[in-house]
Specification:
The structure is a single chain. By secondary structure, the chain is of the alpha/beta class. The protein has a single domain (about 1-180), classed as Rossmann fold. The protein has 6 helices and 5 strands; from the N terminus they run βαβαβαααββα. The protein has a 5-stranded mixed β-sheet with strand order 1-2-3-4-5, with helices on both faces.
Length: about 180
Amino acid sequence: MHVLVNNAAVAPRRREETPEGIELQFATNVLGYFWMITAFRKHLTDSAPARVVNVASYWAGGLDLADLEFRRRPYDNDAAYRQSKQADRMLTAAFAERLKDADVTVNARHPGDVVSTLSRDLGFGGHETPDQAALTPAWLATEAIGAMATGKYFEGQREVTCPFGADRDAVEALHRACEGYG
């Protein structure tokens, strides 16, 4: 069994762009996940059963499909982070649907409030250790639940209802937008 864990995230305090001209937080937190799943898709399906675990967050919401990169809105790292984590949860639903017949599960999980540069940049500092944050992705990667559930969102070691994946039109619109970044 193979497992892909997408765990990259940044929350710069000011708007920054990649060398390709993509807003850094969207590029890292959303497109990075999209590109990794896309790049490893054949490997995952060929080695199935396989799993994808996307690190998302309970701190999610405010997605603006018309302004994914904060080109029209004033950049706010908290709003950009929340948007990116909503997008991660939505892409989890999108890829779960696309990979369900290939015996590849795709789930998202909240890592907890980890003491990290990211949490400090968001202004809350965190209180959990990296080891504590690793518990749920390791659980989804190795335990039976990770093979049985797909398209789900977890906090701690329990499934939590996620409204973001339920809007199929928005999920598909986001997936198409990400495809446009080639």
